[in-house]
Amino acid sequence: MVITIPAAVYGGYLYRKRVGEKATGEAEVVAKTVIEEAKKQAEAKKREAILEAKDEGYKLRQEAEREVKERRAEIVRLERRLVQKEETLDKKLEQLERRDDQLTRKEADLTKQKERAEELVEKQQSELERVAGLTHVEARTLLLSNIEHEVRHEASLMIKGIENEAREEADKRAREIITVAIQRCAADHSAETTVSVVELPNDEMKGRIIGREGRNIRALETLTGIDLIIDDTPEAVILSGFDPVRREVARIALERLIADGRIHPARIEEVVEKAQKEVEQRIREEGERAVFEAGIHSLNGELVKVLGRLRYRTSYGQNVLKHSLEVAHLAGAMAAELGVDVHVAKRAGLLHDIGKALDHGVEGPHVTIGAELAKKYREHPAVVHAIAAHHGDVEPLSIEAVLVAAADAISAARPGARRENLENYIKRLQKLEEIGSSVDGVDKVYAIQAGREIRIVVKPERIDDLAAVRVARDISKRIENELEYPGQIKVTVIRETRAVELAK
After folding, report:
1. Rounded to an integer, what distance in angstroms lies between the CA atom of residue 320 and that of residue 311?
2. Prediction pTM value
3. Which residues of 163-182 are buried (b: 16+ CB within 10 A; e: fewer)?
4. β-bridge partners, 199
5. 3-state DSSP percent of the chain in helix, strand and coil, to 5
6. 237: helix, strand or coil
7. Three-class SS of residue 199?
8. pLDDT greater than 60 at residue 185
9. 349, 332 in Cβ contact below 8 A?
């Protein structure tokens, strides 16, 4: 029994070994079959790929040959064109050479003719000099001198006649137009002045405005940018500042603080902020009111705000916003009389001094600033030009521009409209007399009518009647170029001849 079990185990082992060897053999046969099949498929795909590559190469070669043929044909065509152009250029070159030869021959002929003509002219001049007894230079100088004297005399007579006729007609027509315009525009004659003085209920309020160690006055000055002058003036505080809008903010804020009684830095800041908003609102309202009174529509909102700032700006004591309104009405009235564009004239008249609202913070004269501002907000070119030309900085090219300048002068020349300090007034009179005395032949000069007229007495033996006309015109041009003045200045030249005899 013991011997039988190992025999059985060994027999099972032999059986499994045979079965495994048989399975391995079959697997090897299958693997060989699969490998051979794969090789066959690989060979087939390889042959297909080679055929496809050959086919693609054939196509590419045909495409390349076609492109080469096309390029060769293009090159042949270009070569033909170049040959044709060369032939054309050769023909033109031949024509130019023939023309050059012809011109050279003509030039030589002209040179010969010119030389012959110069010889004839020299002979004629020599003969004339011999007959007249004068050289060519002497004769020419004498002739030019005589012609110049005659032309000057005739020109002076013509100028005098034309000026007299034009002046009479222009004065008559201008007087009518200006009279009608002034009558239709009922503006205030007296100038409005800005007084930056705040009244106090009592002198004790000065100490409260100053505050402990000056805290209140420092806060107010810092927030408004305005200097407060507290001196011995009874029951009054003076506000000093370059910006009229800031001065107005400081005035409103200080009056409210005095009325409220609570004066400390926090309260000052609150009141100043409210005053600034109130002034901004007033500025917009003033601008809208001015636009409405002038009858102007579709004005840019920013221009309206800037225009409103002119309410707090004065020029020689004249309120600039009221002056601008008056100029708009005058220019519009004169434009209507002349039959030109009333809308452009009024619009330019209202905006002509708008640069004065910004000239404290922007470099340049108010004329240039105003013109650039109007151009920025897309005003009509005619309006921009009238603004730029109303002080003569730019030559006026339209009737509307001339009317705006005239209306500006009329508004400034109204009695009491403007004032100037004594120093500037005296300097202007001295400059007027200096300009009048600088002309050769002037005897005496008088500046009269507060500098609005200059009378010049000339020496009759040095200056005749016609020369007096030139003297008046030359002096008026110098005054226009060298002086700044409101309105206009009349130049009168007086030439007087006296005959005195004694009866014995």
Report:
1. 7
2. 0.49
3. eeeeeeeeeeeeeebbeebb
4. 236
5. 70, 5, 20
6. strand
7. strand
8. no
9. yes
DSSP bridge partners of 484? none
CA dihedral over 35, 36, 41, 45, signed as positive or negative = positive
Tell me the pLDDT tens digit for each residue of 203-212.
777 788 888 8
pLDDT class for 193, splitting at 50, 70, 90? Answer: very low
Distance (Å, rounded) from C-alpha 302 to C-alpha 378? 12
Q: Are 224 and 272 in contact (CB under 8 A)?
A: yes
**Sheet of 227-229: strands edge to edge?**
197-199, 236-240, 227-229
Q: Which residue in this structure is represented by tokens 């921009």?
A: 384
User: Mind listing the pLDDT tens digit for each residue in 36-86?
Assistant: 888 888 888 888 888 888 888 888 989 899 999 999 999 999 999 999 999
Q: Is the dihedral of CA 396, 397, 402, 404 positive or negative?
A: negative
236-246 residue pLDDT tens: 888 877 777 78
How far is residue 185's CA from residue 16's CA, in Å, rounded to a whole number? Answer: 136
Question: Mapping DSSP to helix (H, G, I), strand (E, B) and coil, where does residue 465 land?
Answer: helix
CA angle 479, 482, 488 (to 5 degrees): 40
Q: Which pLDDT score, from 0 to 100, does residue 76 have?
A: 92
pLDDT at res. 2 = 46
- The neighbour count for residue 473, using CB atoms within 10 Å, is 14
Nearest Cα residue to 400 out of 380, 414, 418:
380
Mean pLDDT over the full length of the chain: 81
Angle at 471 between CA 470 and CA 475, to 5 degrees: 115
Distances (CA, A) of 485 to 69, 255, 423, 425: 88, 38, 14, 10
Q: How many CA atoms lie within 13 A of 414 on its CB side?
A: 25
Would you say 205 and 257 are in contact if contact means Cβ atoms under 8 Å apart? no
17 vs 6, 10, 11, 407, CA distance in Å?
17, 11, 10, 133
Please give the Cα distance from 67 to 75 (Å, whole number).
Answer: 12
Kindly report, residue by residue over 221-236, the tens digit of the pLDDT.
888 888 877 777 777 8
- Outline where DSSP puts E strands in 137-285: 197-199, 227-229, 236-240
Output Rg (C-alpha) for the chain, integer angstroms: 51
Going from the C-alpha of 455 to that of each of 443, 450, 489, the distances in angstroms are: 11, 12, 11
Q: In what order do the strands lie in the sheet with 490-495?
A: 442-448, 453-458, 490-495
Provide the pairing of β-strand 318-319 with 442-448.
unpaired
Q: Which of 126-135, 154-163, 385-394 has the lowest average pLDDT?
A: 126-135
Closest by Cα among 413, 437, 389, 416 to 485: 413
Per this entry, what is the length of the chain?
504
